[in-house]
Amino acid sequence: MPILALGNSMAWRDAAGSLRHGMKRTGVGVAVICAVAACSPKKEREKPVPEAGYITVSTRDVPLTVELAGRTAAYEMSDVRPQVSGIVRSRLFTEGSLVRQGQTLYQIDSSLYRAAARQAQANLASARAAQAAAAALAERYRPLAQIEAVSKQEYANAVASAGQAAAAVEQNRAALETANINLGFTRVPAPITGRIGRSLVTTGALVTTGQADPMTTIQRLDPIFVDIQQSSAELLTLRRSLASGGAIPSSTAVRLTLEDGSTYPAEGRLEFSEAMVAPDTGTVTLRARFPNPQGVLLPGMYVRAQMSQQTLTNGILVPQAGLSRNPRGEATVLVVSGAAGNKGAAQTSAIAQLRTVKADRTYGAYWLVTSGLKPGEKVIVEGLSRIKPGQPIRPLPAGSKPKPPQGKASGPASR
């Protein structure tokens, strides 16, 4: 019995050893297989060459628009003042209304001036009678002096008296004319056609000749002036640019932006530029004239004037989406440059080259590039988010890439 147990124990140990040996061999094989799989080369996926939509740039005439501050001013303005002294009897206009030249605005008491005119007329009649008598006496003495019936001295005195009487007639005629003019001044007319302001005098007020305060003010608002301020430094730059030949003078058209941000519908014209610089502001005044039939523009309004003073003859326009700024603030664009072999594809692709350009101003939806680009070069404006400088690209004209279909794609029908 003990011998059998011992034999069974030895057989069991042999079987267990064989099992462990087989498991070791199996583990070594699995490890080898894993090592071989890990060491085998993995085929890398090639990244597709990104498509780049480009535009071909060219030179063109670009009007350079400037925006300047300005204020409106009346085309004509007149202060209404009395020419004679007296009491205001009536006001014959509506404040704020449109008055015509020659229209009566005020009536001053005319009784004294009417009496003075009648007196002057009477004096003129008396002088004419005295002139007739003196002329008759001189005519009567003339033949008598020839026959020495009267002395030559008496005849000379008669002729002189006739001349004095004629002069007195002219003096009294001038006095009558003055009296009639003063009588007419009691009716205060509108000197110009325009919009009249508020009345500064009332009925019953005393007005005097040469008084400092006007009775009212009239302003002509159609057309209307806009006085635009431009710094003398900008004016010098403009003249230097025109003298260099790179730009030509533009038209004199001017547009306005009002205080509320709206655009004035009518277009104005630049009239002239003052020949002096204001010493307190360092600016030159440019005056433009605008039609104002509806009376929208009133004197003293603040406006913004847009006008083109020069036209650049060789400007290049680049869409704003195709231009960016580097950390130094320099303007940069990506230009299609050269050709490089595209590995894994039969087609060749170009290189996206980073180019620094000069672009100081915008023109609508474009940047105006004045240096750094040449006509005929291709600037990338589409697909910029997938392109880096120096990267191979597949250039396509901008807008030629087909758009993806709209809506959701339908999948396979479920069974």
Automatic annotation (TrEMBL):
Tell me the NCBIfam families matching this sequence: RND_mfp (TIGR01730)
Q: Which residues form the Multidrug resistance protein MdtA-like alpha-helical hairpin domain?
A: 118-186
The entry sums up its family as follows: Belongs to the membrane fusion protein (MFP) (TC 8.A.1) family.
Q: Region annotation Disordered: residue ranges?
A: 385-415
Q: Which Gene3D superfamilies match?
A: 2.40.30.170, 2.40.420.20, 2.40.50.100, Helix hairpin bin
Which Pfam families does its entry note? Answer: Beta-barrel_RND (PF25944), BSH_RND (PF25917), HH_MFP_RND (PF25876), RND-MFP_C (PF25967)
Supply the name of the protein: Membrane fusion protein (Multidrug efflux system)
Gene Ontology biological process: response to antibiotic
A GO CC term attached to the entry: cell envelope
Q: Which residues form a coiled coil?
A: none
- Molecular function (GO) terms listed? transmembrane transporter activity
The record's InterPro entries line, in alphabetical order, gives:
MdtA-like_b-barrel (IPR058626), MdtA-like_BSH (IPR058625), MdtA-like_C (IPR058627), MdtA-like_HH (IPR058624), RND_pump_MFP (IPR006143)
Multidrug resistance protein MdtA-like barrel-sandwich hybrid domain residues: 78-219
**Localisation:** Cell envelope
Multidrug resistance protein MdtA-like C-terminal permuted SH3 domain location is 314-386
Residue ranges of the Multidrug resistance protein MdtA-like beta-barrel domain? 223-309
